[in-house]
Design brief:
The protein contains 1 helix and 5 strands; from the N terminus they run βββββα. With about 60 residues, it is α+β, with helices and mostly antiparallel strands. The longest helix is centred in the last third of the chain and has 13 residues, at about 50-60.
Length: about 60
């Protein structure tokens, strides 16, 4: 599972791609209510079902 970060105080949720490499970067998660995804360098990365479950828990905190 990839890392999901929550920005404070903005409440922005970000997904970290390529964690543990020199290319590591966090991208804003889009479409939180439908099929969540991130758009990184023009490529769409969908969140896995496990990441979506974790995202729903974080959304209740917001």
């Amino acid at each position: 599972m990839r890392t999901i970060k929550m920005g404070m105080p903005s409440g922005t949720l970000k997904l970290v791609l390529w964690e543990g490499t020199e290319d590591e970067k966090a991208f804003k998660i889009r479409s939180l209510n439908n099929k969540p995804y991130v758009l990184a360098y023009g490529v769409r990365y969908n969140l896995t079902s496990e990441e979506i479950k974790y995202l729903n828990i974080l959304k209740t905190i917001l």
